[in-house]
Design a protein that fits this description.
Four Helix Bundle (Hemerythrin (Met), subunit A), Beta-Lactamase, Helix Hairpins, 62% helix
């Protein structure tokens, strides 16, 4: 039997109970209706006939009084009009004898009516009013009274029967109501119990199958669903058992391989000398290597979270890299050794540089993040030595370079004597090279101060419009020579910004200079300022040659210059600009498309300026 048939069979008791209640109700209502009809058929017709008989008798008596009063013609006409209807009502009563004693009462009525009619005919035959009056009071009036009493007896007999039958019908109705309520309750309870029992029996295989599925989900691959029958649930149980058997065979055949692959994977990351941490999508730590456990005191078995025992500085770096990778921003690459975090160890302090890579699932989506903390202690020391050397050399260059610039300037001014035109051209070229060299030296010194943390920012509220104009003003002449249009855009509500005005102008000026230098004739450079959530975003957009994608990630590196670009400085401007922006607590980035243009942007914390009340 199929499952649908079983479920339909489970509802059959309810349908049967409903049918029984319906049949009982129709039968009972039919009986009550017939009882009411019996009352009408048995008694009401007799009551109606006797009431009409009384009415005719009273009219005949009134007619006799008319004759006694001297209205003989009128009395005769009225009496004759009552004879035929009265006789018909008597015949109706004689045919409707239904109650005990009603036949005797009807015969007595017939006898009294016969005597009254004979006396009435004799009364009508009298000519003298005196004799008619005497006959009325002596014989006719008593006969009328007897006929009237006989009629009233029959009327009372049928009325009492109607009352009695009505009471009986009322009692029967109450019994029927009780019977119907009892039958409905019994049928409903019985039908529900029977349906529930049948439904439970029909769905018991579903419970068995559900329990087997639950145990299989808990890892019990030996569980089986024992369901007998040939319905859909039985077929599903057979398919489930086949699946469980296949899973069990697969587990026996591949468990060793899986364990071996997991061991090999764990051994591979344990062999790395640098700490490795694998995060899940929810931020939980999925795996760590031995270097992370020993160097960072990080363990998956630590209660309260794997990062609970890690130093706050290291935890902050791990969280920053994890949020970057899981936020869909791609791999995390450090900007320089200054992002390295210091970790105390038994052999001295170590500097670890974070790198992050997304972990992709089978569907191609990001399912985790791998964070590698590369040990750059020696490289950072070399970098510090290099920076110190560059700073020292740049500082030592300043004095002779200043003297050289002064000497060239004096020669050009012919203080030491007249010079030829060719000598003046050579000295002018030398002065331009000295100025460029002086700019490189200044950039090197600024960069060394930034990296050493000796740069002190004088942050205050400044006018956004003034900052944009100060950044464009020094480059209007160069822009006009190259045929490049300069413009600025600012949101009306953005009137103030909190920053070091000199350093902010230096950043914007550097970006505008690069934009003008790399924009051809007829192009445009636009400086914008607008709100970006809780920050202020500055943009310098140009319609120049653009930057190839493979170079966009390196333009902020020190001493890096895009191959094939126009001549300029030593490649320190963007690096210095980024250091200044980060010192303000902001971020800096680039979006560029070759042949279309580039947009350099950076963000600063937004200042809330109270409005005058």
């Amino acid at each position: 039997m199929r499952l649908r048939d079983k479920l339909l069979l489970a509802q059959a008791p309810l349908a049967l109970a409903l049918l029984l209640v319906g049949v009982l109700g129709v039968n009972t209502l039919g009986r009550l209706g017939r009882a009411g009809q019996d009352i009408l058929a048995d008694n009401y017709r007799s009551v109606l006939a006797m009431q009409r008989t009384l009415e005719h008798l009273e009219r005949m008596d009134a007619a006799a009084l008319f004759i006694v009063a001297g209205e003989r013609r009128r009395g005769q006409e009225q009496a004759e009009a009552q004879l035929q209807p009265l006789e018909e009502e008597l015949k109706v009563q004689e045919r409707n004898l239904t109650e005990s004693g009603e036949a005797e009462a009807t015969r007595r009525l017939r006898e009294t009516w016969t005597r009254y009619r004979s006396g009435y005919e004799a009364f009508l035959a009298l000519d003298s009013p005196e004799r008619a009056r005497q006959a009325y009071f002596e014989s006719l009036a008593p006969a009328f009274q007897e006929a009237r009493e006989a009629t009233q007896d029959i009327l009372a007999l049928n009325q009492d029967a109607m009352v009695r039958k009505s009471d009986a019908l009322r009692r029967q109705s109450r019994r029927v109501n009780t019977l119907m309520v009892t039958a409905v309750v019994v049928a409903l309870v019985g039908g529900l119990l029977a349906s529930a029992s049948l439904t439970q029996r029909a769905l018991r295989p579903v419970s068995v199958l559900s329990q087997a599925v639950r145990r299989l989900g808990q890892g019990d691959l030996a569980t089986r669903a024992v369901v007998e029958g040939r319905d859909e649930i039985s077929q599903l149980a057979q398919d489930f058992n086949a699946m469980a058997e296949a899973l069990q065979r697969y587990r026996r055949s591949s468990l060793g391989e899986l364990l071996q692959a997991q061991s090999a994977s764990q051994a591979a990351i344990d062999s790395l000398p640098d700490p490795v941490v694998v995060f899940g999508l929810d931020g939980s730590v999925l795996n760590v290597n031995r270097a992370a456990e020993e160097g960072l005191r990080l363990s998956l078995e630590v209660g309260g979270g794997a990062l609970g025992q890690v130093a706050p500085e290291v935890r902050e770096v791990l969280e920053r890299v994890r949020v970057h990778v899981l936020g869909g921003k791609g791999p995390y690459l450090p900007r320089g050794y200054e992002e390295a975090v210091r970790v105390e160890g038994p052999e001295g302090d170590r500097w670890l540089l974070p790198r992050g890579s997304p972990v992709y699932g089978e569907g191609g989506g990001v399912v985790g993040a791998t964070v590698l903390l590369q040990d750059v202690t020696r490289l950072r020391r070399f970098d510090e030595l290099k920076n110190d050397l560059v700073a020292t050399v740049a500082h030592e260059f300043r004095t002779p370079l200043t003297s050289l610039r002064m000497a060239i300037h004096l020669c050009l001014e012919e203080v030491a004597g007249p010079i030829t035109e060719k000598q003046a051209d050579l000295l002018s070229a030398a002065r331009e090279d000295c100025e460029r060299l002086q700019g490189i030296v200044d950039d090197l010194l600024d960069l060394s101060r930034l990296q050493a943390g000796r740069l002190v920012l004088e942050v205050r509220e400044v006018s956004t419009e003034a900052v944009l104009e100060a950044a464009l003003a020094p480059h209007r002449g160069a822009a006009e020579e190259r045929g490049v249009r300069l413009a600025s855009e600012q949101e009306p509500e953005l009137e103030r910004v909190e920053a070091d005005p000199e350093r902010l102008q230096l950043v914007l000026s550097n970006l505008v200079a690069n934009a003008v230098r790399h924009t051809s004739h007829g192009g445009e450079v636009v400086v914008r300022a607008r709100r970006d959530g809780e920050r202020v975003r500055f943009e310098v957009a140009d319609t120049g040659e653009g930057i190839a994608p493979e170079h966009q990630q390196r333009v902020f590196e020190k001493f890096y210059r895009v191959p094939g670009g126009t001549t300029g400085g030593a490649g320190l401007g963007l690096s210095i600009a980024q250091e200044i922006v980060q010192a303000h607590g902001g971020e800096m980035g680039l979006s560029s498309q070759p042949g279309v243009g580039s947009t350099f942007w950076f963000t600063l914390p937004q200042v809330e300026v109270p409005r005058p009340s």
